[in-house]
Amino acid sequence: NAGVTQTPKFQVLKTGQSMTLQCAQDMNHNSMYWYRQDPGMGLRLIYYSASEGTTDKGEVPNGYNVSRLNKREFSLRLESAAPSQTSVYFCASSDTDINEQFFGPGTRLTVL
Amino acid sequence: SQKIEQNSEALNIQEGKTATLTCNYTNYSPAYLQWYRQDPGRGPVFLLLIRENEKEKRKERLKVTFDTTLKQSLFHITASQPADSATYLCALDSGGSQGNLIFGKGTKLSVKP
Fold first, then answer.
1. Do A96 and B99 touch (CB under 8 A)?
2. How many other CB atoms are found less than 10 A from the CB of residue B26?
3. B31 touches chain A (CB under 8 A)
4. Which residues lie below 8 Å from residue A27, measured CB to CB, with a gap of 6+?
5. Which of A32, A88, A98 to mutate to test the interface with B (most CBs of B within 10 A)?
6. Second label for A63, Cα 20 to 30 Å away, from A107, B16, B77, B92?
7. Distance CA A50, CA A84 (A)
8. Of residues A95 and A104, more confidently modeled
9. Residues of chain B under the 50 pLDDT cut
10. Exposed, middle or buried, A109 (CB in 10 Å: 0-12/13-18/19+)?
């Protein structure tokens, strides 16, 4: 099993450009999450999906949109990137409400 | 709103000693608390979960305690090794039904040989 995979690993954007971060899991998990991690701020939840077909806002959703394409895939879209969105983005999945979360390797995004 | 604090940004200890990391929280009573390890350039990896009705949980050289009166969890690594050097994150459930977690900022542990 590959676990949680994320693409791309690195990305540089110019302000105003758009892009989609891809995430897939092969563990048949119901819940999936998108976090951003910034120095001194820790992991902050952007959006989550408790099950296929549902998505909800987390702590810092502004400037992002998500799509739960199917049970395996959960994508994060930046419609108009801003320098404040420079960060490392992690996707995670979990089986039940209280089980541990499995994280992907992260996408390091720089917005110039 | 819930607040979670890991008291030390960094902790340096000598190999063979016990490392003790602290996680405090306020304004909430979580049903459970989790600890994760994160190595540079990688995603966090789950280590242990402890529920509110459990005082202590162990896994090999790891031990976690959960004191709901003090609103504190302690994470211990006994007989520490240089390979234990990493950032350790505590996370507590946010209180919703979706299993969302609130993460602390982490403590960077360095174990010197």
1. yes
2. 10
3. yes
4. A1, A3, A4, A93, A95, A102
5. A98
6. B92
7. 27
8. A104
9. none
10. buried
CATH class of B3-112: mainly beta
Per-residue pLDDT reduced to its tens digit, A70-97? 999 999 999 999 999 999 999 999 987 6
User: In this structure, what token pair is assigned to residue A23?
Assistant: 């995430």
Handedness of CA A96, A98, A99, A101 (dihedral sign): positive
Name the residue in chain A with its Cα closest to that of B37: A103
Question: Which residues from B are below 8 Å from A44, CB to CB?
Answer: 103
Give A42→chain B minimum CA distance, Å: 4
Q: Do A45 and B105 touch (CB under 8 A)?
A: no
Candidates B109, B105, B75; CA nearest to B89 is: B105
Domain ranges of chain B: 3-112
Q: Which of B46, B98, B106 sits opposite A31 (nearest CB)?
A: B98
